Amino acid sequence: MQNRSIWFWLFLTPVILGLGIVVVIPFxxxxxxxxxxxxxxxxxxxxxxEHYINLFQEDEFMxxxxxxxxxxxxxxxxxxxxxxxxxxxxxxxxxxNNLLRTVFFMPNLIGGLILGFIWQFIFVSVFDDIGTLFxxxxxxxxxxxTGTGFWGLVILTAWQMAGYIMIIYIAYLExxxxxxxxxxxxxxxxxxQRFKNITFPLVAPAFTVSMFLTLSMAFKIYDQNLSLTNGxxxxxxxxxxxxxxxxxxxxxxxxxxxxxxxxFFFIVAVIALTQVYYNKKREVEM
Amino acid sequence: xxxxxxxxxxxxxxxxxxxTGCSFSSGDEEASSGSEDAVxxxxxxxxxxxxxxxxxxxxxxEEENPDVNxxxxxxxxxxxxxASLKTSFSSGEEPDIFNIGGPTDVDEYEEYLADLSDTKxxxxxxxxxxxxxxxxxxxxxxxxxxxxxxxxxxxKVFEEAGINPDEIKTFEELKKAVETLDSKKDExxxxxxFAFPAKEKWVMGNHMAxxxxxxxxxxxxxxxxxxxxxxxxxxxxxxxxxxxxxKYSVQPTLSLDYSQQVEEYFSLGKVAMIQxxxxxxxxxxxxxxxxxxxxxxxxxxxxxxxxGSIPVGVPNYWVVNKKSEDEVVQASxxxxxxxxxxxxxxxxxxxxxxxxxxxxxxxxxxxxxxxSKEIYEYVKEGNTLGWVFLGAPVGWTEGAFGVxxxxxxxxxxSWEEVIKQSKEDWEESRK
Lengths: 286, 431
Known about the structure:
Shape of chain B: globular
Strand content of chain B: 5-15%
Distance between the termini of chain B: 70 Å
Radius of gyration of chain A: 23 Å
Structural class of chain A: mainly alpha
Largest sheet of chain B: 6 strands, mixed
Largest sheet of chain A: none
Strand content of chain A: under 5%
Family (chain A): Belongs to the binding-protein-dependent transport system permease family.
Number of strands of chain B: 13
Domain ABC transmembrane type-1 (chain A): 65-275
Keywords (chain A): Cell membrane, Membrane, Transmembrane, Transmembrane helix, Transport
Distance between the termini of chain A: 25 Å
Membrane topology (chain A): Multi-pass membrane protein
Oligomer: heterodimer
Subcellular location (chain A): Cell membrane
């Protein structure tokens, strides 16, 4: 640790300052405000844990947490499945490799709000027309029930993010030493065995990274939720982030929303850290 | 290598200094722009529909009054505006003129609201338009305009179906007309009689509920604001009207939204009726100018005892920030006065903003669009119901009644449940 010279601190200071000003200080402020009756402009009373006790008894908040958890589980599985699948596809020697990578990554470049509106059109109008044309009832009335709203959100997110996760897997897949694969081939391992015993263990670090990314992203989703279903019908597809924004800006309960945000932060932090810890343990050192 | 690092570090340092330098200087620049002793008034308003027209008016005012600078910032409707307004207050960048909705907003911002009783506009404001912004004899806001709503109908479709809109006064007559439309929908070329956007909680929670709650609170928003409970005395009528719209609408209603209702279905003539107000005129006109001008009529929502009445109210108020400097407060008041009481301003308000004026002195002026004109006729004859929903507890209209109504439409709960839940929520908020 000899190299903690003046340069070390010179490089670090802007980052620490930036992080402090836009993340740490506001977070501490928010934490303090969550114990008061802050209305967004002034706080007059200290309420202690009142908000925290209330929020655990509020159905709407608990429902939104439960909905978000279900959503996160499904999307994390789907995203990693499709991400790895696409990555395996585009790391093979096919001619359109680069084109395919671009195409798969593209949805990620469109903003969540716009994507939401595009998919809303697809679910509501296109699905409905196809359903009417072929007489498939399951395709009609999308987004008007809780179930279709849920799957709508899952499809949208998987479609948007799979390409991004693919990029991470590609980076790790291309790092796998060719000689290992070759040796396995000579030993007579078939494609499935090669994947199971060589590729899969060696991309374990990619799992750690992309599971963390997908998990935290699935929890924090807001814009897609807003533009696709807007929480409807009857707030049953409302995720935690949206519930907190509603509490703050529709119900004007800033401090209460802040308390919810603190709880939300702890839930996401605990889940994400546990996941990273366990994933790390089963990584293979090369 | 070391040289490389130090080079980068120096560059970083230099750029960060330059950046902070920028952010500091920009504040001064803004303040010093314009002529020497000009007064700068920051307006923060929410009505996206008339943003350009409003800026045009401001430019005219600035030309007449070179010593006043007006900066307009517009942030679009509903939640977005409320959130941005709150953010600008908590960050210390308080606007000098801004908008509030009703009595609950007055509570929220009371310490910032200047007394506007001495303005000409306050004198000219029509009876009843100031009740929700009066506190202790002070007038804290000036009404934007009046708005009204009902069932907008497609005149051509009604004619082809052989329905005379003048004969529709009661619920039974409306129901008969709807059934006729429904039975002829293939020959009329419509998908359904209604487009009912149950996805939009405000359509049910604000406007539909208001129609049947107005009587209960004597058409007085302040009475609703002070009420400890809500009775739903006309709950049955509310239910049958909701059922009618829901049953005879393009399905599924729960994923049908406002823009589909107005643009896709009504403006393109795919439905015969929608429940909306005069604010949709510009949207319809942007889809089909000719249709908007000649083919849109307005039917009152049937309420027993109030047949032929339209709910009319003031949706928003202009307020002036008391904590701004005195000369800024003065300049703000003068500007608002000019907008609503000068000849130029009045002409602009009716012709360009297409407002239904909430002030006296507009008798000789033509209201621009046909829907507003029709509503103004109802106002002149006194056939109006009050807007009481702005006096409901914060978040009640959408968060309680709107959500419950959606659950009812989905078949999850009974109508009794809807009433019970909404009532409980109201009482809970008023404790």
